[in-house]
Amino acid sequence: MLKIAIYNHKADVGSTTTALNLAAAWQRQRQQVLLLDMDPQARLTETFKHIGLDMQKHLFRFYQADTPLADLIQPLRNGLQLIAANKELMNLDSQFGRGPATLQRLADGLAQLHKTHAGYAVFMDCFPGIGVIPLSAVFASDLVLVPVSADYLSIHSAVKIDKALNALEPVLKRRVQRRYLLTRADKRKEMTAEVEQEMRRLFGSEVLVTRIAEHAALAECGRMGQHVFEYDASSPGARDHLTLYFELQDVIKQLPRTTQV
C-alpha cells in the first residue's frame, strides 16, 4: 500500500484539486485508489456529497468509536473510493490530545487496512495548518506531496512545511520523503518563473519537473462533482495530472521501505 499525504499549511494552493485528480490519474492506470478526506472543511467530501454519500460514515468515527477504516470506505460512481470528512475532525486535538499515540493512530489504522487493501494507493487530502490531523497523515505517509501555488506567500509556507517535516524526523527516526509541486502555474506570468526558480534554489531535486497549470477544466470539474478526466480527458489539466502520475512513478521507486503498487 502506497500512502501519499497532500499537504501545505497554506490554503488555496490546490491541495484538494491535486488529491482528486492525481488519484484519478492513478485509477486510469488500472490501480485501486482510496481518497482520505482529512480536512474538517470537507471540500473533497462536498464534491461528491450530492451522489448520496452516507454522512454517518466519516473519518472521525475511526477516532471516536474505533471504527475500522475499511468500514468507512464508500465507493463513488467514478470508481474512486472515499473516506469522508466532517467538521467534527476539528475537535480531534481537544478530544484526543497531540501526543504520539494520537499521531500514530492513523498509521496503525492504515496498517490494518493494508491486510485487505494491500494494492491500494491512498491519497490523504490534509487540512491546511499544523495540528494533529495533518501531522497524523505525515506519520502515516510514504511520501508528502507539497503543492505550492505560483505566488510568494506559498513559498514562505513551503519553507515552514520543510522545517516542520525536518523537526519530525528525530521522532519518526527516518527522513520524511517529500516532493514540491508547482500549481496554478501560468507561463505567461513572470511570477510563475520566479517562484519556480526560488523553489529549486530552496528545495533542489525535491521540486518536481511537472507543473500544474491554471486551467478552466480544473476549476470547473470539482464544481460539477467530477474529476478532470471525467470532465474533459483531453484538457491540459488532465494531461498535467497524468504527467505528474508518471513522474511520481520514478519517485516511488526510490522511496525506502515502500510497497510498490
From TrEMBL:
Pfam families: AAA_31. Coiled coil: none annotated. Residues 3-170 form the AAA domain. SUPFAM superfamilies: P-loop containing nucleoside triphosphate hydrolases (SSF52540). PANTHER family: P-LOOP CONTAINING NUCLEOSIDE TRIPHOSPHATE HYDROLASE, PARA FAMILY PROTEIN CT_582. This is ParA family protein.
